[in-house]
User: Fold this.
Amino acid sequence: MRSDGAQDSWIASLRPPVNRDYDWFRPHAVLLEEELDATRQFTRSLVVFLVNRECPWKCLECDLWKFTTLETVPAGAIPRQIEAALTQAPPGGPCPQIKLYNSGSFFDPRAIPPGDDPAIAGLVDSFARVIVESHPAFVGERCWRFRERLRPRLEVAMGLETVHPDILRRLNKRMTLDDFARAAAGLRDHDVDVRAFLLLQPPYMAEEEVLEWTRRGVGFAFDNGVSVASLIPTRLGNGALEKLATEGHFAPPSLKTIEQSFDAALAVARGRVFLDLWDLEKFSNCPWCLEPRRQRLRDMNRLQSVLPPIHCNRCDHDAATL
Ligand code: SF4
Ligand SMILES: [Zn+2]
Assistant:
């Protein structure tokens, strides 16, 4: 395997060209979503995708750099983006949660200038919960100070990615399972909730191993006190995964594997487990059953229980109900 620096350069060299000339004073996107909260009520979230400097890591599977800038945004830009998001929020009633997602780490000083923390805390004061994302390496003093400034409850989402130790190392995230566990324990000690992102079928994982590693990943997350585990099917699109696909080291999960993994994850969950349904059609090869399958997974996100499987006589030879 390449050295860390050589691996970074190799991953960066494979990136497709993308126009990253973003307005520093407008969020990249704003949307509303609904999810089950800890009390099993459906709760609306205002999701704000902030424009800010690229994350310092270069993970093998990551395409979030597409939505970031090369330079640190000026002081005051992030509060202005949040103000803009609050005024352009889609209609639909009150929103108890706000997710401030920055395609990296909220507590990275080169991403979100720390001097903006008081203004950000003031802007989100009317929400009940604020959710930000961070690499475990940035979970520390700044996070505790930010939490003290906030009236809403703080939740930090961290990419656990996989608990397969060799694959986690190959993802180039420079994080061990112990690093994740330590950061999660620190967050809990400071009364901050924890969310974990887990990849479904990361590179170097054979399709037949996915269920078992998903179960183990969800188990590890809940063992370490997370309250939400979010499953993300690994997608092509960042250049490095396309290259690994040509070498036989990566294939996106099939919709069947995604469904079975979510079933398996819910069966062992000790908290909420959500499946990311974004671009689900990219994982399907049968237009006849895509929509009922999507609806079943959406319902499972809402109900947190495994529903009867969808059978399709076009792609599934052991049944015929569609
Ligand atoms: S730490 Fe997160 S945002 Fe940064 S490169 Fe890795 S996956 Fe992407
Ligand atoms: Zn089908």
